[in-house]
Amino acid sequence: MATNRDLQIVYGDLTIGGPNSPGNTREPHGPLMKKDGRDFSSIVFEFGIHAATDALFEAEKDTVEAELRKPFKDLTVTIESEPIDYFTRKQSDDTGLDAEATWEILEEDQARHSARYRVTIQMERPADWTAGTDADPAGLRDATISVNYIDSRRKEVRIDTEFTAISGTAARAQYEAKIAAYATAVLNVIDSGATWQLVNEPETEATRNNKTIRTSRVYKALLETQGTANVRDQALHIRRRITAPGDTGVNVKRLKILDVHYEAGIDSDDSTDLRGEWNSILSFIAGQVRSYAGGGTLALIENHPDFDQSNNRIVADCTFWATGGSRILEQQIMARVERDMGKRLRDVYDGGDLSKRLYQSVGSKRLTITHTVTMQGTVQIVPAELKDGGAAVLRLAGLTLSGIKKAGEKIEHFNRVDDHHPVTWGSSPYQIKATQIKVVHTFEIFKASGGGAPTIASGPR
User: Fold this and answer.
1) Which of 77, 114, 88 minimizes the C-alpha distance to 36?
2) Rounded-to-integer distance, Cα 217 and Cα 394, Å
3) DSSP bridge pairs for 200
4) φ, ψ (nearest 5 deg) of residue 219
């Protein structure tokens, strides 16, 4: 029998009480009860149903329970058509999130075709109690901050958050709108002087209706400049090799060899042009290498970038050469003295197969100086080292003319051969220009004789 009810409860499409059918065939019983917490709320109420026949009774039970099984519905309570906000919770305006109903039949009378239900509607509540600041943004229900230090005391921070929908803004949209400012506020508390970079966002887990979302973000404190603004989680390794295989002279600085290994992800929201990113990164690497080498000119000898298009990552290996502060990059000076003692053999035909006659003839003494040098830049060959008769070259080798010739001997420069080989190491714009020079000097050491042909003027050539 229909009755006019002042109290009306509406959950989704299920109406209980009120002036109109079918709600007025369902009679609310007893008081409404509500349990509230920070994150959850539940409403408990009872109502009765009745019908004229068994068939209508069973149909009514099926209708009621089918509607109660539907989750995520609005719950509205009114008295005399006036809404009661204290009990009203709606999925549609985010005052009640992801509501679900459970019920039990307290009593049932088949003969009278009536039953009494107790219904509990459980829902989450939005995080609308926050201060609304960067450090305590609207919609942030919970957060956990973890700080990890690696062996170099570099900080790594993980921020786990839970955001809710609020005031018509879905949970994911609320998270994306607020997380950057919130993370900055958190990181400034940990170390306001550090430069932080978001390197990973391993997971975001949202509910079906986007009413709550759980997220994780990982930040690292940067200890060095990044290759570009779009680089994430950069790893730069530089290994310096200084070789000293043995050179002649004191002002020789061999080229430094610097091996580089580089890895980084490129934020795909900002760029997928890995080749363009690499060109900028290579310039950055060259600057780091130059600083690590202590200055000088660089040559890029090997360049092996690996572009991972599927994951928008770059892995690269490079080798640079760097000058070390002297134009002389390599130098070897070798002095060789050949002494012919003047002894000669002449065959004697006396029937013996080994018969020879030994006699003394004129001997010789020859000095050969081989000077090999690699110099930075383009160098024109000028025999300046011969201005003093080759003494400068010998001094570089730790020798002197007086240490080679004996008393009464003279030394004369007879020959000089120059090889001149300009080279360019590296690829543009990282190149070193150099000249490889090989000079061979030949000197004759002798004793002057007053007889024979006239002598020529002795001196450097």
Assistant:
1) 88
2) 69
3) 218
4) -120, 145
CB 41 within 8 A of CB 89: yes
Mean pLDDT of the chain: 89
Tell me the C-alpha distance between 18 and 8, whole Å.
5
**Residues 131-141, buried b or exposed e (16+ Cβ, 10 A)?**
eeeeeebbbbb
Burial 161-177, CB ≥16 within 10 A → b, else e:
bbbbbbeebbbbbbbee
Residue 245's pLDDT band (cuts 50, 70, 90): confident
HSE-CB for 74 with a 13 A CA cutoff: 13
pLDDT of residue 386 exceeding 70: no
3-state secondary structure of 372: strand
Is residue 257 a contact partner of residue 241, using CB atoms and an 8 Å limit? yes
**For the chain, which domains are there?**
7-124 (2.40.30), 140-221 (3.30.70), 233-322 (no CATH), 328-446 (no CATH)
Has this prediction a pTM greater than 0.90?
no
Question: Mean pLDDT throughout 164-169?
Answer: 95
Element (H, E) at 203: none
